[in-house]
Amino acid sequence: MSSQQHYQRVAQAIEYIQQNFQHQPTLEDVAAHVHLSPAYFQRLFSEWAGTSPKKFLQYISVEHAKSILTTTPSHSLLDATYDIGLSSSSRLHDLFIQIEGMTPAEYKQGGAGLKISYSFAETLFGRVLVASTQKGVCALAFVEQNEQALKELKAKFPHAEYIEQTDEMQQRAVALLTAQPNSIQHVKLHLKGSAFQLKVWESLLKIPAGQLASYRDVAAKIDQPKAARAVGSAVAHNPVAFLIPCHRVIQASGVLGNYHWGATRKMAMIGWESAQIHAHSEEF
C-alpha cells in the first residue's frame, strides 16, 4: 500500500486524536478506532508522516503553532526563501511557482476562449482534481466525488472548452503532493482572481514549509495591516490547494482554524510538512 493510500486511515486517526486530546488517547486507543493493530498502525502512520503519531501530534498542537508565530517575526518569515517538495532522498529543494493572472476578458467572460484540460490523481492528502490551461495550472482541489468536483470547476469557467487529459503542468503539480523527485521543477499557475487576491496568494508562496503565519502577518506584508479579514477571504478562495500554501495561515492565537478542503486535511498538511523539515534538519 502506498503512502497516498494511507491518508484515509491517517485522517481518521488525526481527527480522533484532536477530538479526544484532553483524554490523551494511547496508541492502542487510536489504532482500535481505525480498526488496526497498534503495531500495524504505528508502521502505517510513520510511513506516511515520516514520524511517530506522538511526535506528529506535537506538530499540530496549539502550543507548537504559537511558538512558531511568536519566535519568527512576520517580516523575516515572509521574506524568507521558501522550501517545499521532497526528493527521493528526503532532501528539500526550492520550488519556484509563478502566478499569472487571467486577463479581464478571461476573468469576466467565464473562461470563454479557454481550453481547460483536467485529470484526477491520488496524493498524500487524498484524491485531487487538477486542471490547466495552455498557460498553467488553473485549479487543484481535493475531491470526494469526481462528478461533483468537475461540476464545481465548470461553474467557475462555464464558457470554457473542457477535455479530460493529463499534461506536463498537471504532472508537476501533482508531484508536489506525492513527494516525487521531479517536484523541484517549476510550476506555472494561471489563476482567476482579483488584483488583491493575486497579491495575497503571491505572499503566501513566501511562507516556508514547516512555518506558519497569521492572517495579520500576511496583511502587514502586503502593506494593508488593517485588512486581515479581507486576507482571510482571499486565503479561503485559493483555487490551487497546497501549491499556494494557504494551509500555512492560521489564527494569531495558534488555533489552526478552518480550511476550504477540511480542517483535518489542514492539520495533516501542517504536521506532515513539519515532520519532513525536522527529519531533514536531523540529517545534518
UniProtKB/TrEMBL annotation:
<dbReference type="InterPro" id="IPR014048">
    <property type="entry name" value="MethylDNA_cys_MeTrfase_DNA-bd"/>
</dbReference>
<dbReference type="Pfam" id="PF01035">
    <property type="entry name" value="DNA_binding_1"/>
</dbReference>
<keyword id="KW-0808">Transferase</keyword>
<dbReference type="GO" id="GO:0003908">
    <property type="term" value="F:methylated-DNA-[protein]-cysteine S-methyltransferase activity"/>
</dbReference>
<dbReference type="InterPro" id="IPR001497">
    <property type="entry name" value="MethylDNA_cys_MeTrfase_AS"/>
</dbReference>
<dbReference type="GO" id="GO:0003700">
    <property type="term" value="F:DNA-binding transcription factor activity"/>
</dbReference>
<dbReference type="GO" id="GO:0032259">
    <property type="term" value="P:methylation"/>
</dbReference>
<keyword id="KW-0489">Methyltransferase</keyword>
<keyword id="KW-0227">DNA damage</keyword>
<dbReference type="GO" id="GO:0043565">
    <property type="term" value="F:sequence-specific DNA binding"/>
</dbReference>
<dbReference type="InterPro" id="IPR036388">
    <property type="entry name" value="WH-like_DNA-bd_sf"/>
</dbReference>
<protein>
    <recommendedName>
        <fullName>methylated-DNA--[protein]-cysteine S-methyltransferase</fullName>
        <ecNumber>2.1.1.63</ecNumber>
    </recommendedName>
</protein>
<dbReference type="GO" id="GO:0006281">
    <property type="term" value="P:DNA repair"/>
</dbReference>
<comment type="similarity">
    <text>Belongs to the MGMT family.</text>
</comment>
<keyword id="KW-0234">DNA repair</keyword>
<dbReference type="InterPro" id="IPR036217">
    <property type="entry name" value="MethylDNA_cys_MeTrfase_DNAb"/>
</dbReference>
<keyword id="KW-0805">Transcription regulation</keyword>
<keyword id="KW-0804">Transcription</keyword>
<dbReference type="Pfam" id="PF12833">
    <property type="entry name" value="HTH_18"/>
</dbReference>
<feature type="domain" description="HTH araC/xylS-type">
    <location>
        <begin position="11"/>
        <end position="110"/>
    </location>
</feature>
<dbReference type="InterPro" id="IPR036631">
    <property type="entry name" value="MGMT_N_sf"/>
</dbReference>
<dbReference type="InterPro" id="IPR009057">
    <property type="entry name" value="Homeodomain-like_sf"/>
</dbReference>
<dbReference type="InterPro" id="IPR018060">
    <property type="entry name" value="HTH_AraC"/>
</dbReference>
